[in-house]
Design goal:
It is built from seven helices and eight strands, in the order ββαβααβββαβααβα. The protein has 211 residues and is of the alpha/beta class. The chain is globular, with a radius of gyration of 18 Å. The strands form two sheets. Strands 6-5-4-7-8 form a five-stranded mixed beta sheet, with helices on one face. A hairpin with a 4-residue loop joins strand 1 and strand 2.
Length: 211
Amino acid sequence: MPKKKFYVVWKGKKPGVYSSWKVCKEQIDGFEGAQYKSFLSIDEAEQAFKGKYEDYKGKDSKKVKLTEAEKAKYGQPILDSIAVDAACSGNPGALEYQGVYTKTEKGLFKKGPYTKGTNNIGEFLALVHALAFLKQRNKPKMVIYSDSKIAMSWVRQKKCKTKLVFTEENQELKKLITRAEVWLHNHSYTNPIKKWETKAWGEIPADFGRK
């Protein structure tokens, strides 16, 4: 079960501490220059709210302490790699995805927003995009990280098994999915696709930082 998060809004329609991403999102949607961040405990969130956004911006508040056994189990991520992630405002909603170079977090590609998509679709498209990206650059051994087991499974099956209903509004997204599936069927690849261990390493470097 995912850990419950608490959200601090320093600048928004109504600044405060919220226990729901949905309610937090209502405070920041359409608010120019919104400042917000998630925390793992109510105490940490309330303490952060008393301070300044700049004191917490870019700092990893999601990383938890591990036992020595857990540290040995997860090890360290391979920094010479690509990390991918997706973000979706709503379900379905405006969908974006991106890939970054893990070591420097430098952006390698970013796509969207696409109308009426889902996060899982974005994660799937990001992985296929990364595979094609590395294929073009003749880097068959570079690791790709994703924090989505579902998207990794879809790539292995060469099929985006979404239950999303497609309408005239999201036909562009449907075409992208079809193109990605065709690519998987027509190309072989040897790049390892690995799970990003958020518990041990914090948020994936490609994270959009929106929740």
